[in-house]
Amino acid sequence: MRIFMLGWEFPPYISGGLGTACYGLTKAMNQLGLEVTFVLPKSLDDCHASHVKLVGPSMPTDEHDAARFEELENITFRTIDSALSNPYATLEMCDRKIEELIYTQKLSHTKSSFGGSMNVSKRKASIDYGHNLISEVHNYAASALEIAKREDFDIIHAHDWMTFPAAVAVAAFSKKPLVVHVHSTEFDRSGEHVNQQIYDIERMGMQVANKVIAVSYLTKNIIMRRYSIANSKVAVVYNGVETNPQSNSTPQSTGIKKDEKIVLFLGRITMQKGPEYFLQAAKKVLEVAPNTKFVMAGSGDMMHKIIEMSAALGIGDKVLFTGFLRGKDVERVYKMADLYVMPSVSEPFGIAPLEALNHDVPVLISKQSGVSEVLTHVLKVDFWDIESMANKIIAVLRYQPLQMTLRKHGNFEARKLKWIDAARKCAKLYDKTLMQEAKMQPEIA
Amino acid sequence: MATVCFYFQLHQPFRLRDYSVFEKRSDYFDEKKNRDICRKVANKCYLPTNRTILKLIDKHRGKFKVSYSITGTLLEQLERYCPEVISTFHALANTGCVEFIGETYYHSLSFLYSREEFKEQVKKHSDIIEHLFGQRPTTFRNTELIYTNELCQKVEQMGCFDCVITEGADRILQGRSPNFLYRAPKCERVKLLLKNYSLSDDIAFRFSNRGWQEYPLMSSKFAQWINNINGNGNIVNLFMDYETFGEHQWADTGIFEFLSDLPDKILQNPDNNFLTPSEAVKTYEPVDVIDVPDVISWADTERDLSAWIGNEMQSSALQGVYKLEKTIKQKTNAHLINDWRKLQTSDHFYYMCTKFFQDGDVHKYFNPYESPYDSYINFMNVLSDLKNRCKQNSGYEEK
Hints:
The complex is a heterodimer. Chain A is α/β, with parallel strands linked by helices. Chain A has 2 domains: 265 residues, 3-Layer(aba) Sandwich (Rossmann fold); 155 residues, Glycogen Phosphorylase B (Rossmann fold). Chain A has 15 helices and 13 strands. By secondary structure, chain B is an alpha/beta fold. Helix content of chain B is 46%, strand content 11%. In chain B, α1 runs parallel beside α3, α1 packs parallel to α10 and α2 crosses α3. At the A-B interface, α13 and α14 of A face α13 and α17 of B.
């Protein structure tokens, strides 16, 4: 089976769950012996991102050539020269890139690449950015079609809307069946203020596709309700988690005292992730457990608002902002944390809690997340229920046996969610789709 | 001779209300939920089954007999929410064919944590049974049939019981039949009745299981199985939750018809009869010693304590409760001591069980919590408030 896979992110160039998911899935497909050609836009800043060793493989230096990661023998990578590599069209990405650059102290070399976008008003920047992104999506589609013309494959698998125009074009040209994989929808990213253009692309992709993969039943319901896709066409394939090899890194000096407990928020600081609920819960926790620090690891379009909000709540000294973390720093922050909280307003899946469990950190998640469908040994709250969230945070900080039991069972449960199972489900879905296609062919001919 | 000995278990806990760490009030129990569940079970099970039993006793003129073990926490709730159930038990008590069995008032695990508290709760339970039904229990069963040699010895020392009931677990019988009386090592007077779990579970669990090869279970077939005991046993102990009738097995499974018809079919064989536990120990002698050095129970397939003390949360919650005993008892404040005792009910710890959590099963029955973690957090918040009240001089006074 040869799969023509269209993606937008791949480690080390990731902004969140999408790249991690693509890596996990293709690695498992590689183990199953599936042949995958993975088409990826070339990253804007690969020369700066080489410090990141999140998952090991590094991209080839020769940009336009096919790349083969050593551990992924059946996966061929093709990259397209693309000016922008980020899927989520908001100012936060600019912020994040700048932060990353600060982190690597390379800002002086690269200032020009950003054209001073930090100074542009948010609204304007976001429009420009979005506009650019849409045109990038179309560039990607044109190039992907060129690549497809030279490739031989049985089925097309496309990840999220940025690749859908490409996928639809390749499907029309090749007459091969198309599977689109929905890791998040415009409603998850933007609430009710959807970008109509993006929504239209998503809907068109799902309608044209032979099958739609949703990362949870939560997402499947959105796909059925908001995009009018038939129940029978949507399959749920849960994500997995990479099991974490124990690392020996020890926490470095952080300004956090030993007797202080640490509650961790790790993710983009954006509406979808519910950072303001986290802060409001923090305020309540501190009334009862003042010896607690709240670490917000990540960046995003709400970062400034959240910093201001923590000051306004009078808990500015208790909330630490680390900016966007990668690799060793992520491991370090997990090592220090007593509890990981994901208060997402809308989370199609949520790989981060699995990673926290994998790092032996107990987890509290919102019920409005896909991952809560598969996890039982975690604490769950409605994202808006601040009191319940604070109540549960305090209990974890207070009661060692609760922490121990959550950690023990949660870690075990997370390890059972394997990418290989997700890959097997995809493979089955390919077979089924190809069989249905084969049945259809004679009638068409 | 084959004697049939029925014993029915009735219990409801005082379930806690949602109690967050920010709570200011010191009332812990969910009045509405407890009332609703109590009334629901009364209507589906307690009332119709009591009526059925009453009719059967009447019909068989003293030949049909049963025994009940009703916890103090349920009796309190019945008095408050469904006094008509208490009235029907009065009527049953007056027939002379019904025995009431002693246990810990609060359906607690106190035997494992405090012998002093255990004794007090058993006495309190015997008192309320005598007060309500005019008979003082002489048969004892511990919470969830939790049992060891030591329990039997302790009960014998208490002087008021001559029979103890427990599970006929394979590992204590070691090939012997549960259909005889036994005794515990170092016990002279107290005799043991062991649950025939196979025949009991045929009614309690398998009755409506269409996948079971004996389905449908008719009373004549079951009576035949009882007849088969004749010659290789004295007594068949059928012990089960009373909720079997109408709640675990719904009325439309035919369980009430089965029950109504069973005594007739069993008594058709003149060698069969019905006895209560205290009559059984007067009729038969123990045939052997049953040695139970390690604790057993009637729960799950393991028949051990892991449903209540299987994880760190359960152990810490239980230890937390019993650590308060000395302080609470010094306070001599009735509210404080009642609240503390209601927290000892084993259900609170059962809700914290992570053992079968993923399978979803019997542990979910009337479980008010979404997860064992939520139940632990709620319980610990209540316990923490109780501790604070202990620290105050006067404790909690009625407003």
